[in-house]
Amino acid sequence: MPLLLFIVFCIGIIFEENDAQLLSAVKLSQSVPGLITYPDSLDWQTNGVVTPVQNYLDSSYMNAVVMVETIESLHAIATGTLQRGSIARVMDCCATNMTYGCIKSLGGICTYDDYPNVLGKCQTSVCQPFASFDTVDEYYGLNDTALLPLIQKSTLFVGFYPPEQVFLRYKGGIFQETNCSEANTMYALQLVGYDNTEKGDLYWTAKNHWGEWKDWGESGYIRILRGANICGFGSLVYQPVVSAVTTTAKSIPITTSSNTSQLGLTLKILFFVLVLYTAYL
């Protein structure tokens, strides 16, 4: 009988230890994105969910352009259909409140064809929105490596603070300017992916909205050194979300843990019952 009691007790301890380790692993995988394996590269543009580079040199259009672009891409990822959205409608209706919240209050974005030009006043009845979102995730002061799990879901609105003249002269290559300050003008870009060079240099790929102005960038795109927080890249991030098609680590079911916990508890109870029974005899 003493041997049986010892065996039951040890089994209970083993299941309790396994349960604790499993819970610890699950919590760690949710809180440390680096433990999850991501593709070596990702380009939403080649996946057919990014519209062509726009031509908006006027800085007053900047936020509207990038917000519309991220909603276009989110809709394309969810539905498989890519359509160009109306930036003009956002300018007309949200000029004094240029936020995702304003766009959501309009029911989302209309197509460019339905509302191509700024009318000077908000005309909500001119068109029917084709794409919207449920919520917007906002991030401030992130290390740029924290963008890796976010970009897996959809494109991002990212703020960027490079020296103006350096940014204006960018013609190509990996941007890695270090003489930066958040006192600089913020440029909003659509982050569409990431990759690395043959030499192993990591970079982000982001879309600007200056068309072919002075042959800027790489066909309207810029590559930015990844993992170095270049010019505050990652310090201001917005990501519109459609809840129905978004999967996060929080949705991972934890069923094995509860089962092992219950079994460990059962064995402990059995142990004490046997102790009492032995004492009674």
Features:
eight-stranded mixed β-sheet; 15% strand; 7 helices; globular; 281 residues; alpha+beta; Cathepsin B, Chain A
In short:
This protein is of the alpha+beta class and 281 residues long.
Task: Tell me the name of the CATH class.
Answer: Alpha Beta
Radius of gyration: 26 Å
Shape: globular
The CATH architecture can be named as Alpha-Beta Complex
**How much is the average pLDDT?**
82
Number of domains: 1
Share of residues in strands: 5-15%
The number of E-state strands comes to 8
Distance between the termini: 11 Å
- What CATH calls the topology is Cathepsin B, Chain A
User: Biggest β-sheet, characterized?
Assistant: 8 strands, mixed
Specify the number of helices.
Answer: 7
Instruction: Provide the structure class.
Output: alpha+beta
pLDDT < 50 runs, ≥5 residues: 13-31, 246-265
Query: Helical proportion?
Result: 25-40%
Q: What multimeric state do the chains show? A: single chain
Summarize the helix and strand pattern as letters: HEHHHEHEHEEEEEH
- The CATH superfamily appears as Cysteine proteinases
GO biological process, one term: proteolysis
Domain Peptidase C1A papain C-terminal: 38-241
Family: Belongs to the peptidase C1 family.
Organism: Adineta ricciae (Rotifer)
Describe the structure.
With 281 residues, this protein is an alpha+beta fold. It has a single domain (41-241), classed as Cathepsin B, Chain A, CATH 3.90.70. The protein is 35% helix and 15% strand. The chain is built from seven helices and eight strands, in the order αβαααβαβαβββββα. The chain has helices at residues 2-31, 62-79, 87-94, 100-105, 147-151, 164-168, 256-280, and strands at residues 42-43, 135-140, 156-160, 174-175, 187-196, 202-207, 221-225, 236-241. Strands 1, 2, 3, 4, 5, 6, 7 and 8 form an eight-stranded mixed beta sheet that branches. β5 (187-196) and β6 form a beta hairpin. α1 packs antiparallel against α7. It is globular. Residues 38-241 form the Peptidase C1A papain C-terminal domain. One of its GO terms (molecular function) is cysteine-type peptidase activity. It comes from Adineta ricciae (Rotifer). Pfam families: Peptidase_C1. Residues 1-20 form the signal peptide.
